[in-house]
């Protein structure tokens, strides 16, 4: 029994080490001054410094990319929370003709792989002259069928007594939604926000074709440029860029860690 | 009797008119709530799918869309004879065959260990989950350096007789680098899913088995594994979808140092990478759209298979 316990900790510890190693190494490499020294460890503190970060911050457009990523992902997340919740509420609570068709439509487009949309969306954006604008990076991603599905599931189980009471008090349906249903949907909204934020913050294929000017890149596109020779072919500088890019995701994850676990289990239920 | 029914009819008519007014209001509200979603999803999801289907039958250049030529099934025919595309399909299928069983077994084992009386569970869960939420672009870039010649991990592997080469430049190694990256990225997520599956198995089943004298292994094989069947299928299904659509990691790894996507020698080329390269490097949009639809059919088939499986399970 005791040896088994030790074996268990060994397996978990080893796995944790393997999972963390790339993060630790990246952080280490980002402080190494010379590329040549990146694969060796030294106690000589003169070898380390923040030069790489200074270089990336001053020489690349990373400030723009941060601004773009924060703005784009922020607006997308807010729009998704609003629009998906509205649609999910209507599908769950409002008596609407053709509701089932709309629900199947939502389920159906959930199954479409996004890659199929790359070319048509690019062509549409090119025609509208939206390439290299925030419109192209934001508008197509303002709703998400999975978010609608998630919210519908939540509102189906929402107690109708609350709505009845509010109706008695003379509130309109729209007021009921915004003042009662939506505030009570906080757990579902957090789960949704997590997905939408992480998906869009890390998204690469769409931003890489919809933004071609370096000052319109989002962080993933910018970091891809950095690691692929455009600005530098230096390992340590690339890793400084990776660190800067990863920090917000990690903070977001640490804050909402519990909800992450819960919502990934919900995804599991989605089937 | 007659009297009563007329009376009810009268109120009915009156009530009906009233209902239809509230009903109209209700419909108006529903339309208001649905409108943003339907509008945006219609324009940016539904219409593009149809548009993409149309482009797949055309010789289409985005530089001059009006000159698009209808070529029927030509793109599809050409694709199925294109050895590069077939290589991309084969690579993706190979990834599926290698990655799925390994990551499923590892996740199952890890979840079982985490489900026993172990301290620091939430710490391990968080650490395992971390790679899953990290940007695939960043992950790809970091792995390239860890598996570089004289890189930390490469040097470690030389202890086991592997060569000290940059994995991404070597045809034999590059593919397995992708395999390792996918597994590293995903197992944490599936471990969490398995963990929730394990926690839904009632404890008294194990107790009964223990009373009957079943060993730990017997309990695992006869209780845990069968009861986790739906979870296992889910893990295989989601892992399958993710692998069929894999793009970022192989793209970053293969283009390190400005090499062509899929290099060396198409060894890391996947289906979606092929689509992306054809469309946005060679601007063969019609051809790439046809590839997108072939990928769509493959993914759709997987979904149908899963649906059939669940149906059979529900009946049985």
Automatic annotation (TrEMBL), chain A:
One of its GO terms (biological process) is transmembrane transport. The chain crosses the membrane at residues 7-28, 70-91, 103-125, 131-155, 176-199, 238-256. Coiled coil: none annotated. It is a multi-pass membrane protein. It is found in: Cell membrane. The keyword Cell inner membrane does not apply. Pfam families: BPD_transp_1. GO terms for cellular component: plasma membrane. Keywords: Cell membrane, Membrane, Transmembrane, Transmembrane helix, Transport. Residues 66-256 form the ABC transmembrane type-1 domain. Belongs to the binding-protein-dependent transport system permease family. This is ABC transporter permease. It comes from Pontibacillus yanchengensis Y32. The lineage of its organism: Bacteria, Bacillati, Bacillota, Bacilli, Bacillales.
Automatic annotation (TrEMBL), chain B:
It comes from the Bacteria. This is ABC transporter permease subunit. It comes from Pontibacillus yanchengensis.
């Amino acid at each position: 029994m005791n040896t088994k316990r030790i074996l268990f900790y060994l397996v978990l510890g080893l796995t944790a080490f393997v999972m963390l190693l790339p993060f630790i190494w990246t952080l280490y490499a980002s402080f190494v001054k010379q590329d040549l020294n990146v694969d060796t460890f030294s106690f000589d503190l003169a070898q380390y410094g923040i030069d790489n970060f200074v270089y990336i911050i001053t020489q690349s457009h990373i400030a723009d990319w941060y601004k773009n990523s924060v703005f784009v992902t922020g607006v997308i997340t807010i729009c998704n929370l609003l629009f998906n919740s509205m649609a999910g509420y209507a599908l769950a609570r409002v008596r609407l003709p053709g509701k089932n068709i709309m629900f199947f439509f939502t389920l159906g487009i959930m199954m479409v792989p996004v890659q199929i949309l790359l070319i048509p969306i690019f062509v549409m954006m090119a025609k509208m002259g939206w390439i290299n604008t925030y419109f192209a990076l934001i508008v197509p991603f303002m709703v998400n069928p999975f978010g609608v599905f998630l919210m519908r599931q939540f509102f189906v189980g929402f107690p109708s007594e609350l709505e009845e009471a509010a109706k008695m008090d003379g509130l309109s349906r729209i007021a009921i939604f915004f003042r009662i249903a939506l505030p009570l949907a906080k757990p579902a909204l957090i789960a949704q926000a997590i997905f939408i934020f992480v998906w869009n913050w890390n998204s690469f294929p769409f931003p890489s074709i919809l933004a071609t000017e370096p000052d319109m890149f989002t962080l993933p596109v910018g970091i891809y440029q950095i690691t692929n020779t455009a600005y530098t072919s230096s390992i340590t500088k690339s890793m400084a860029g990776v660190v800067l890019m990863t920090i917000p995701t990690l903070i977001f994850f640490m804050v909402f860690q519990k909800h992450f676990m819960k919502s990934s289990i919900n995804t599991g239920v989605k089937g | 009797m007659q009297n009563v029914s007329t009376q009810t009819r009268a109120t009915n008519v009156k009530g009906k008119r009233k209902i239809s007014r509230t009903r109209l209001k209700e419909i108006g509200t529903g339309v208001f709530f649905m409108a943003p979603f339907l509008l945006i999803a219609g324009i940016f999801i539904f219409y593009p799918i149809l548009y993409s289907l149309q482009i797949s039958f055309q010789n289409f250049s985005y530089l001059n869309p009006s000159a698009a030529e209808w070529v029927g099934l030509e793109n599809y025919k050409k694709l199925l004879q294109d050895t590069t595309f077939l290589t991309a399909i084969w690579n993706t299928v190979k990834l599926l065959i290698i990655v799925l069983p390994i990551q499923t077994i590892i996740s199952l084992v890890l979840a079982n260990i985490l489900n026993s009386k172990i301290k620091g569970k939430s710490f391990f869960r968080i650490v395992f989950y971390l790679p899953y939420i990290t940007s695939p672009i960043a992950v790809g870039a970091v792995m390239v350096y860890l598996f570089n010649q004289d890189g930390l991990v490469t040097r470690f592997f030389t202890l086991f007789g592997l060569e000290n080469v940059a994995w991404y430049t070597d045809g034999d190694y590059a593919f397995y680098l992708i395999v390792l990256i996918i597994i590293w990225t995903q197992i944490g997520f599936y471990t969490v899913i398995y963990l929730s599956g394990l926690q839904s198995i009632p404890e008294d089943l194990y107790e009964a088995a223990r009373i009957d004298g079943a060993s730990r292994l017997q309990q695992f094989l006869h209780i845990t594994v069968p009861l986790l069947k739906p979870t296992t299928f889910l893990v295989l299904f989601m892992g399958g979808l993710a692998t069929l659509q894999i793009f970022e990691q192989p793209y970053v790894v293969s283009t390190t140092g400005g090499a062509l996507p899929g290099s060396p020698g198409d060894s890391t080329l996947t289906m979606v990478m092929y689509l992306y390269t054809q469309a946005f490097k060679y601007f063969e949009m019609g051809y790439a759209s046809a590839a997108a639809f072939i990928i769509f059919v493959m993914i759709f088939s997987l979904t149908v298979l899963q649906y059939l499986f669940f149906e059979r399970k529900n009946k049985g």
